[in-house]
């Protein structure tokens, strides 16, 4: 069984930042990533543009050069991939961590490919793997997707976009511009307040002119093969439909956190317990990094403000070692 000072679960931007910091401090580390490098970013919409400017997405002060000031998904993938390969970071890809337990003061980590031991574990598993389900009849039909990738697929189709956040608005606008007949189904009274300020007028104007249809204060109640049932303030309505993009957000893998002993707050936020000074969770020597720290508040942490977790954690680990 291979032994490490640190095992980092998750090879997203923050897991990679932790590995860089560990390497700088000559610690024996390994990233275990269940998909490809920066797997969540890889699964974002192909044309996605970050709301952050590129320097805010930099890790370890390595320059991130992008064509526009706000980079695109492809540029971010290139940036994080080059960091991993150029720095020869120790990473195992397409290997999923399935169990974690403590024995004789060390962690035992079981994956789809083997077992490891480590003195410290950093959980940087993000929130993009588990979509928030609507829990309605028909949601399991193949025409319903909780991830949006490429507008080309939806050309000349009747597409319903559920949600009013950045992802939903981007998908609605892109599909409309590729010739889809787009209907937005929005639970609240307006387009989300966090929608990128330069995108908001575009969607509001498309809705106002009728190019994109929008039902506000409306719930999707049922998905059928060729139609949807929606509940509007005026009552139930049946509309024709080919595809549903249910972009209603994502949540961290709380079952995994519970299984490894991390305590979650009792309220609906399900905030994992950790010390803000060190990022150490209630499980000694188990640290949390990146967006997972926000529990259900998935907007609280992002790359910009969580990249500092890497240095905080590695400093805390070294301080403990020297204590
Ligand atoms: C559409 C969209 C746009 C965004 N735009 C911005 C922006 O402009 N600026 C910004 O700062 N942030 C932005 N964010 C947020 C940011 O992309 C994420 O916060 C970022 O990916 C978080 O990095 P992370 O390393 O914490 O998590 P992730 O990037 O999600 O990485 C977690 C990794 O863990 C892996 N993993 C999960 N479970 C396991 C397991 N059991 N075993 C092994 N590996 C596992 C996953 O495959 C994944 O690669 C955006 C998010 C979305 C969804």
UniProtKB/TrEMBL annotation:
Keyword Glycoprotein among record annotations: no
Descriptive protein name: YpdA family putative bacillithiol disulfide reductase
Organism: Leptobacterium flavescens
Domain of life the protein comes from: Bacteria
A Pfam family this chain is assigned to: Pyr_redox_3
Classification via InterPro entries: Bdr, FAD/NAD-bd_sf, Ferredoxin-NADP_redctase_2
Segment forming the signal sequence: none
Single Gene Ontology MF annotation: oxidoreductase activity
Name of the gene this protein is made from: ypdA
Keywords: Flavoprotein, Oxidoreductase
């Amino acid at each position: 069984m291979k032994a490490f000072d640190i095992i980092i679960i998750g090879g997203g931007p923050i897991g990679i930042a932790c590995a860089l910091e560990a390497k700088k401090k000559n610690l024996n580390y390994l990233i275990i990533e269940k998909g490809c490098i920066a797997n969540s970013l890889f699964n974002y919409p192909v044309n996605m543009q970050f709301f952050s400017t590129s320097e805010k997405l930099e890790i370890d002060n390595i320059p991130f050069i992008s064509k526009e000031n706000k980079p695109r998904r492809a540029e971010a993938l290139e940036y994080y991939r080059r960091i991993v390969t150029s720095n020869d970071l120790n990473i195992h890809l397409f290997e999923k961590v399935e169990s974690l337990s403590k024995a004789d003061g060390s962690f035992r980590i079981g994956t789809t490919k083997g077992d490891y031991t480590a003195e410290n574990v950093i959980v940087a598993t993000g929130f993009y793997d588990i979509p928030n389900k609507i829990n309605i009849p028909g949601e399991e039909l193949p025409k319903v997707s909780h991830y949006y990738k490429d507008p080309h697929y939806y050309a000349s189709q009747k597409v319903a976009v559920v949600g009013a956040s950045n992802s939903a608005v981007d998908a609605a606008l892109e599909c409309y511009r590729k010739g889809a007949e787009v209907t937005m189904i929005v639970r609240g009274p307006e387009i989300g307040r966090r929608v990128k300020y330069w995108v908001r007028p575009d969607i509001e104007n498309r809705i106002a002119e009728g190019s994109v249809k929008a039902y506000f204060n409306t719930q999707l109640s049922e998905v059928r093969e060729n139609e949807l049932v929606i509940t509007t303030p005026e009552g139930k309505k049946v509309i024709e439909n080919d595809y549903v993009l249910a972009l209603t957000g994502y949540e961290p893998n709380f079952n995994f956190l519970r299984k490894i002993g991390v305590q979650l707050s009792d309220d609906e936020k399900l905030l994992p317990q950790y010390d803000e000074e060190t990022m150490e969770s209630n499980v000694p020597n188990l640290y949390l990094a990146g967006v997972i720290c926000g529990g259900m508040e998935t907007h609280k942490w992002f790359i910009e403000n969580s990249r500092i977790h890497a240095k905080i954690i590695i400093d805390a680990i070294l301080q403990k070692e020297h204590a």
